[in-house]
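Record copied across here:
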Amino acid sequence: MPSSPIAVVTCGPAYEPIDSVRRITNHSTGEIGVFLSDALAARGFHVVCFRGEMATFPAPSSAQVHSFTTNDSLEALFAGLPAAPAVIFHAAALSDYRVGSVKGARVTGKIRSDLKELVIHLTPATKLLPLLPEMFPQALIIGWKYELDGTCEEALERGRHQVAAVGTAGCVVNGRAYGEGFGFLEDGEVRHFADKRFLAAHLADWSWRRVALDA
């Protein structure tokens, strides 16, 4: 059992299978997870990185790395942690939907490529962030809000809503709607960071101070 407080970082994309070779996924390199893992390890945390297997950025050498595929496989990794984490940074780009059914083909392996039409019916995938406070009631949990549409204030408001609805300690907001850089929401207030490295360094320092206060 590690003697240092445990920090869990999720990063990279999840996917949901259509058939045995085709997938629905999100674009995510997993880069932010590497910067976060390195900054947290340098601050003194024992870092566990849950990394989507389709992430393209090299895995962090500073962390204990486990790969996940679907939202449900990531949930299983959390359930299998041998000790409760002190802090969780949930930056992974998880799937909002999974394939409920495919009309126009029998899905037994690989769907034939000569079919004229397929209709894929999507159903909501497991939302992991709302499950984490119940799984780890003592942990500091930071969510992510990646927004493309709307204004910066609208993106921040969605982040504030996430914090209030889920009960997280904070939320990182980014994407085209937010603009350049990243916003970190805590207690309704926002602090801006120009890039991922500055953000990761701040989050590592902030969480170390919070964990020390709670000890």
Notes: The radius of gyration is 18 Å. The first helix runs from residue 31 to 43.
